[in-house]
Amino acid sequence: MQVTKTIISTLAGLSLLISWLIPHHYNPWLTSDSEFLAFIAVLLLSPLLFNAKIALPRISIFIALCALIPIIQWAFGVIFFLGDAVIVSSYLLGLATAIMLGHNFAANENARNHAYLGLASILIIGSVISTWLAFRQWLQFDSGFNSFSAYIPPNSGYRPFANFGQPNNLATLLCMGLASVWYLFERHLIRRIAGSLLAVFLICGVTLTQSRTPWVGSFFVLVWWAWKSRFISPRLSWLSLIAWITLYVVLILSLPTVTDYLRVGEVDLAGHAQAFERLGLWQQFSLAVIDGPWWGYGWNQVSVAQLAMSNVFPVAQMTNSSHNILLDLLVWNGPIVGMIMISVIGVWICRLGYSARNQETIFGLMAVGFVLIHGMLEYPLCYAYFLLPVGFLLGLSNGELAQPITSPLLRFKWATIPNVTLPHVAFASFLVLSAGCIAWIGQEYSNLDKNYRAQKVVEQNTAKPLSTEAHAILLTQLRDRLRLKHSDPAARMTAQQLDWTRNVAYRYPQIANLYHYAAALALNNQPTKAQLELTNLRALYGETVYTNALNQLEALEKQTSTLSTPLMQNQKPCRNHRKHTHCHSVIQ
Fold first, then answer.
1. Is residue 15 part of a domain?
2. How far lies 173's CA from each of 35, 124, 180, 421, in Å?
């Protein structure tokens, strides 16, 4: 029995490890392989709960109920595509399951210790390999793409990202790896020299990413350590911790000089430190929450909120996230439901932090803290390979809550909610349905991916598109995205067809999609609406893109001669802001 548990745990760990290391990031779903592997890791661990009673923590019930929100939003037309509702609900149910797994593992001291040790080991292995890959990318050792490492072209300006495709995600993993090194050091499982070598190597990797998130993370570690170190009599002294952070600062300051000396690129540290492009997005989406619908714009539809605000508070940066998890929740769910979710989860996490008293929970919440800090600046929690491990660590901490909280604020009212024991049959049924859903989604995506690649080949060799298209029942958002890509705007479109075109363009507001919708409106005698879509293009992508799109529409107008009113007759600049590229208005 113990051998079986070890094998299952090892397979789950390998699945999670590979999700961080797999180099394949292709359209139409860039991280599909990594996402599937992270879910498989949770599925593999789940059968280990069947040898005892399965406790269903209250927070898992709350998150599972939240998983109904996307389905309800789709049913009422807030979310455009069933596929988005299915994917979001799957991620929320996956998070609830990961928390439940951690909670039940914590009930047994031996299982709890093995869980912490296993995850810390996986984090260290993944961090070390990823740092090695980052060094190869920085030094430009790879001459081209291979099956194990993503390739960065020389002098491209890209920062090393290992196989994540995103330097900030790599930095977050490495910070979690550093927390894991500290944990094993405190457990006397690695010696001082080995721990120091690992820490130096990983800090060098964090430096190479040039990510600003670890700067905030360093401050978090100091505060967390000042608060919690008194409970555990740590081996790591205050002086040593400050020395490690000082080393990180020195490496950051020396990176431009070293990079220039080795002639492996350029590093503009001052310009990078002064870039605050997220502030405009936060202002824009704050307005979207204030002025938007009470029940939100729908999960995964931040782009819809951005387009709604483009002419009110334009920001020339198309995004699918507000780059702040709290704002995302408010945009997706509206101020009422969003604030309820933020309050419940926030109080729960604060309660876990207040209760942390041993090495395990302090390590687990430190690792979680790095991801949450990143989540306040970007969107790592949108990736299952971060979301599910975070849920597992939070579940482990939740399972260790043994003493009552003395703070009235943090007590909330959890004690009044009865504990729930999940029947084995119910959990087994859930796992079977989950495995079936993952397999179904995987098969659909495989077909969509093949269709996408086939269309790319056709585009490169002939002007004639393929007549066949991939069918999908669940991944409707990706199916319709590909369908729009390989269709042309036409005259005499029905209102339903125009609405469908709008939904796809607003869900995926790339230049081609927004132009497609504007052209469809123009060809169907709706020049005013077409002009409004052109102003959205200008707000997101600038004057050059807008001018090119307008010229293409004029050429299309001359070819078809179907418009009753020429577009240019409706184009007049705002008298007060003639020179502002984002301040033109349409005057009838």
1. no
2. 15, 9, 10, 34
128: alpha, beta or left? (left if phi > 0; alpha if psi -120 to 50): alpha
> Domain range for residue 495?
489-570
pLDDT digits (tens, 9 = 90+) for 29-46: 999 999 999 999 999 999
The DSSP element (H or E) to which 56 belongs, if any, is: strand 54-56
Q: Report which DSSP code applies to 55.
A: E
The pair phi, psi for residue 216, each rounded to 5°, is -70, -35
Those residues with Cβ within 8 angstroms of residue 584's Cβ, 6 or more apart along the chain or in another chain: 535, 538, 573, 574, 577
Instruction: List, for residues 411-469, the tens digit of each pLDDT value.
Output: 444 444 556 899 999 999 999 999 999 999 999 999 999 988 888 777 777 655 555 56
Angle between helices 238-262 and 213-228 (to 10 degrees): 170
First to last CA, the chain: 77
Measured at the CA of 97, the angle between CA 96 and CA 99, to 5 degrees, comes to 65
Provide the 3-class DSSP secondary structure of residue 374: helix
Tell me the per-residue pLDDT of 546-586, one tens digit each, with 9 for 90 and over: 999 999 988 887 777 644 455 544 454 444 443 334 444 33
Provide the 8-state DSSP code for 153: -
Strand partners, 421: 55
Return the bridge partners of 139, or none: none
CA–CA gap between residue 125 and residue 193 (Å, rounded): 17
Gap between the Cα atoms of 234 and 145, Å rounded: 44
Q: Say how far apart CA 86 and CA 440 lie, in whole Å.
A: 12
Number of domains present in the structure of the chain: 1
How far is it, in rounded angstroms, from Cα 49 to Cα 38?
18
- Structure letter (DSSP) for residue 264: S
Our measurement of the distance from residue 429's CA atom to the centroid of its chain's CA atoms, rounded to an integer in Å, reads 29
Q: What is the DSSP letter of 82?
A: H
Strand locations in 359-504 (E): 420-422
And the tokens for 301? 């539809």
pLDDT of residue 556: 84
User: Structure tokens of 161?
Assistant: 């990202």
Long-range contacts of 123-126 (CB under 8 A, 24+ apart): 123/173, 123/176, 123/177, 123/179, 123/180, 123/367, 124/177, 124/180, 124/181, 124/184, 124/198, 125/17, 126/17, 126/20, 126/21, 126/173, 126/177
Q: Which amino acid is at 536?
A: N
- Residue 56: phi, psi to the nearest 5? -105, 100
Tokens 């060809």, located at residue: 523
With beta carbons less than 8 A apart as the criterion, state whether 310 and 536 touch: yes
Give the pLDDT confidence score for residue 277 in this predicted structure: 78
- The verdict on pTM exceeding 0.85 is yes
Does some domain include residue 560?
Answer: yes
Q: Which of 243, 234, 299 is nearest to 75 (CA)?
A: 299
Q: How far apart are CA 94 and CA 385, in angstroms?
A: 11
Token pair for residue 193?
């020299």
CB neighbour class for 255 (10 Å; exposed up to 12, middle 13-18, buried from 19): middle
3-class DSSP assignment, residue 586: strand
Structure tokens at 513: 């999609």
Is residue 375, in this structure, part of any structural domain at all? no
Helix (H) / strand (E) element for 54: namely strand 54-56
Q: Is residue 151 in a domain? A: no
Residue 477 pLDDT exceeds 50? yes
> Could you tell me if 259 and 267 are in contact, meaning their C-beta atoms sit under 8 angstroms apart?
yes
